[in-house]
Amino acid sequence: MASNVNPTVRRRRLGQELRRLRELKGMTAEEVAERLLVSQSKISRLENGRRSISQRDVRDLCGVYEVEDHRIVDSLMQMAKDSRQQGWWHSFGDIPYSVYIGLETDAASLRVYDPQVVPGLLQTKQYAEALIAGALPETASAEIEKRVQVRMRRQERISTEENPLRLWTVLDEAALRRVVGNKSLMRDQLEQLVEQSQLPHVTVQVIPFELGAHPGLNGQYAILEFPDAADSSVVYIEGVTSDLYLEKANDVQKYSVMYEHLRAQALNVEQSRQFIANIAKEYAA
């Protein structure tokens, strides 16, 4: 395997394969846990890719599943080794949403709905600093700066010319009206948002207040899709103390349908761009 394999995605693929082997054997996660004298939660975390998988874990599981083909075992062992590599984000230390960053780094497309703020991939550095400081008032300035640096690094998926991330963002008008920092900062942020919306791989739409109730009132979420068909799409919902990752096909389908309704009800691309530009002018007045 290449040394630049994304460890987060590698863990997901390995976990999916281990789940497939367990199901082929007709065993439950609880039965496997009993055989290995570990907790059922460990087996679940290994299968959903939320936990690092050691080569010993793979060897023990292959033994339980009676995998006799040494080529399969060797392949899974190599995947376990690759999954323990470090991604670029690990150089910044402990990042609470490192799993999400790993997924975003390897995603081919990202659909985001945000009712409160401009999404991280489209934020200016000043907006990000003010937003993080306001949202996490007890956070030290060094930690705020680290989070901002990570956010700016993530934006390389948008600015790169080679295989950029396909981003589709639907914003509530509240995200544009909420003054983060000050009006001058907001003007700069919205002007950059207008500029970024003209990139061929970035689409920005706005849902104005006058639309009233709409399918996004339940809150922010993102849908990540990957270039490899073996990697299932993921719905990401950010939390205060923990995040939620939905991978079941039925869950992803429900959120995808909801997103289609949001896109259909929002202002079209040109209307949204003008809407944002008009609010930017209000901040400049």
TrEMBL record:
The Gene Ontology terms for molecular function here are: DNA binding
> What are the HTH cro/C1-type domain coordinates in residue numbering?
18-73
Q: Which domain of life is it from?
A: Bacteria
Q: Which Pfam families match?
A: DUF5753, HTH_31
* InterPro entries to which the protein is assigned, alphabetical: Cro/C1-type_HTH (IPR001387), DUF5753 (IPR043917), Lambda_DNA-bd_dom_sf (IPR010982)
| Protein name, UniProt field | XRE family transcriptional regulator
Question: Which source organism?
Answer: Streptomyces caeruleatus
